Amino acid sequence: MTPISRRSLALGLAALPIPALAAKPVIAPLSAADQALVDRAGTYLQGLTEAKGGFVQTDARGAVTQGTLFIKRPGKARFAYEAPSGLLVVSDGTYVSIADSRLKTFDRYLLSVTPLSLFLARQIRFDRSVVVSRVSRMADGFSITARDGRKEAEGQITLTFSDSPMNLIGWTVSDAQGQSTRVRLTNFAPSPGLAPSLFVLRDPRPPRPNNGRV
Question: What pTM was estimated for this model as a whole?
Answer without folding.
Answer: 0.79
